[in-house]
Amino acid sequence: QAAAGGGRAALRACGVHNVCRLLSRRAHGFYARDAGVAHRKNLGLLRKIMCQESTKFKNVWTTHSASPIAYERGRIYMDNYQCCITSIAQQPRLIYQKSKCAKSEKIEDALLLECPLGELLPSPSDYKASLIVLTVQNWLLRLSADSGEVLEKVYLAGSCCKFFRYLSWDTPQEVMIVKSAQNKLPAAARQAGIQQTVLFYLAVFQVLPLSFIGMLEINKKIFGNSVTDVAVSNGILIVMYSMGLVRLYNFKAILEQFMEQQFHLGQEFNWNGQVGIVGKYPFGLPCNIKITDTPPLLFEASSLENAFQIGGYPWHYIITPNKKKHKGVFHICSLKDNALAKNGIQDMKCCSLEPDWIYFHPDMSGRIIHVGPNLIKVLKLKEVKNHADQMEIAEDFTIVANRENCVNNSVTVTASGRVVKKRFTLLDDDPEQETFKIVDYEDELDLLSTVAVTQIGADGRAHLDFHCNEHGILLKSIPLKESWDVTYSHEVYFDKDLVLHIEQKPNRRFSCYVYQMVCDTARDDD
């Protein structure tokens, strides 16, 4: 009530009588006592400090491991999540180290769970960050992010499924999906003529407090024989087929229509002749959502390699025509009527080993980012002049790789005057030319980050650049000290004042390089 009264007072004080204008003014920090104003000011100051010429990023820590290294919100996880290191301190330090786990306790996947704002939760531990992990033996565990202590445990697999492998969000930090590996019969069973109709199992959970919504199966009899994969995102069930077809269904409607009975974790149940406790070993979870008929189809599209994305305003989708010759060609179409937007065919005509890629900008602006070997295009949707019902794709800005010193003449003349003709031309992503490898967005600082790499011989050099997200202007360039081999797998995280580079080398060798911001007016060599 006090907050509401304060909002009304602010309205009266500034003479604003329109809710949309009030929200816009709040977003720009017009009201000093408004929640979040101080945080926005601090982030604005951090961005200015970071982009100063005297500010540098120093390599403060390096480690190597024989097992994968993961990063989540200021925490570095090693040894299959048994070791946790904070990257927030001046130099990364150990948070906890658990004893080495048995192969039967190996963690297959993990999600970071953060406390929702403004909600009353049943346990004090719910207000702190935790890690939800899925083990190879089908246990779903909630671990304390500060100690690794097991806070909750749920056994997933009863008699129906033995191979849960993947965690994902339907609604981030609210609804979680646990997906099984694809069910495949042994060769002997297939030769005996035994048919396998269930392809995947999906278990659905509400988080904080952790509660079981239901489990369902993806069956050939309902969705067809050629299903290759499924996913759930933002209330939509996405079913992918071997011929490139993608079909969308209303997942919430499926849960409501086909749920046979609701169950709660820890509840005793008698289900299909089985008696047990929900989420406890050996019974696990009941498959209480039985899809008996094909759900109403929301949308379908055919795209090469099932590549399909939705975004923008008004809603549009991006596909590649379902023929190999069209690889690297992207069509941007209206979700309302499938109409191709004006200038909606995007083709960089790259001649490269690695294809270009395209996606909707994660800043929720409705823009589109198209990344090629030497060019990044940020595109926007806008109305066609004098045709309000038609949209066109226009360039907002571009970022170009630095290839000023690159000479690629097909004809050269030697010192003796002999003319030499090359029989080949360089690829657009030739390692000896600066090439974009990673593009990311830092939402709290509103910066677009790019990693560009140049490899001369065995030595590759990379630099991380920060660009203004609104106009694409280069604000800061950070050279990475370690050599970058383009044949290895790389991940780069930019998180406020931290840069973290994870590298995977052959034979499962992993390296992690941590850089932290330092303000040094002396301009030393660090």
Summarize the structure.
This is DCA17 factor. The chain is mainly beta and 526 residues long. The protein is 10% helix and 45% strand.
Amino-to-carboxy terminus distance: 53 Å
Average pLDDT reading: 87
Number of strands: 36
**Poorly predicted runs of 5 or more residues:** 1-7
| Gyration radius from CA atoms, angstroms | 27 Å
Q: What summary fits the major beta sheet?
A: 4 strands, antiparallel
Q: Supply the helix-strand structural class.
A: mainly beta
Query: Outline, from the CA principal axes?
Result: globular
Give the strand order of the largest sheet, numbering strands 1, 2, ... along the chain.
1-36-35-34
Q: Please give the count of helices.
A: 6
Keywords: Membrane, Transmembrane, Transmembrane helix
GO cellular component, one term: Cul4-RING E3 ubiquitin ligase complex
Transmembrane segments: 198-218, 230-249
Protein name: DCA17 factor
How would you describe this structure to a colleague?
There is one protein chain. With 526 residues, the chain is mostly beta strands. It is globular. Residues 1-7 have low confidence and may be disordered. The protein has a domain at 102-184 and 196-302. The chain crosses the membrane at residues 198-218, 230-249. This is DCA17 factor. Keywords: Membrane, Transmembrane, Transmembrane helix.
List keywords for this structure.
single chain, 526 residues, mainly beta, 4-stranded antiparallel β-sheet, 36 strands, 45% strand, transmembrane, DCAF17, membrane, transmembrane helix, DCA17 factor
